[in-house]
Amino acid sequence: MKAALTRQEVGKHNSEEDLWCIVDHRVYDLSDFLDAHPGGNVVLQQVAGQDATTAFYNLHRHEVLQKYASLCVGTLENETPEVIDQQPGDLSQVPYAEPLWLTPAYSSPYYTDKHRALRKALRTFVDEHVTPEAQEKEKDGTFISQELIDKMAKENVLAMRLGPGEHLKGRDLLSGTMKGEDFDAFADLIASQELARTGSRGFQDGNMAGMTISLTAVQHWLQNEPLKRKLTEEVLAGKKKMCLAITEAFAGSDVQGLRTTAELSEDGKTWTVNGTKKWITNGMFSDYFVTGCKTKKGLTVLLIPRGEGVETKLIKTAYSTAAATTYIQFENVKVPADHLMGEVDKGMITIM
Q1: What is the value of pTM for the model shown?
Q2: DSSP class of 36
Q3: Does any domain span residue 94?
Q4: How many domains does the chain have?
Q5: Distances (CA, A) of 36 to 7, 42, 63, 263
Q6: Which parts of the chain sit beneath pLDDT 50?
Q7: CA angle 283, 288, 292 (to 5 degrees)
Q8: Burial class (CB in 10 A: 0-12, 13-18, 19+), 114
Q9: Is residue 259 part of a domain?
Q10: Does some domain include residue 106?
């Protein structure tokens, strides 16, 4: 237990060498924090020995105090902190900060106790593992760590990202919170909402967004069943990564204008791909690229493994390089014919 303190006692610690202040009835010793304060030392000296609650909350979120809880030396005698300390998994106390089905005044016939348990477990996971990394990656611009990918794979969060389906059968989600067979459209909505709570836009895309729009296509369109099963298992285990490579410098929403070409060899065994792709999310760390190509009579989609002739370069976007947005060049890349997704020359159906 921290020792009880009085405002008079705090007022004695008002020098640069010995600086205390009060925030929400708690006392913080900032003597060794002056030089580390992102806003400089002067503003802290201005509140030395004083109640800085109003000044603090005008500029900071409460989470900052939780981050530096080790600086707290006690609570003022006969006073009680008023601001709620959110714990991992807790619902927000801010009005309308949560979906209505989570608000006590409302109820929904569509969300069961299983959904509520999933929401609690997933928010705890996000608060403890995803959000801290998201903040770190947004700051330094690096990509998602393999450590976090492994954690999501272990808890089957990666599998949840694809929505309900056969891939979830036999899987226990978040340490048994929900069976994969019970993961329905409402559970999918919960997963999307909770994973977005990091508030880090670039990292949100960097967090395997490419997988969600490419592996789903593989499951539906790849005709090579053994490869489909192998790839699905590897990606959901976090061992391989993949992305969707459609957009080009001259063809974004105008998919019909793709210039990347794919030519089938005379023996019908190999495709040769040449061209470029731009603004490809997660391309920097992907092992496979679901790629739209121009062929003789239309468009064709191929699953291209990273290998000889595949070159990726990082694009510095306006929001964050944590998304791993990529420029890709395919130069005489050889792709096995059985990596075809959908039908030859009918790739527009696959893409759309």
Answers
A1: 0.84
A2: G
A3: no
A4: 3
A5: 25, 12, 17, 59
A6: 1
A7: 80
A8: middle
A9: yes
A10: no
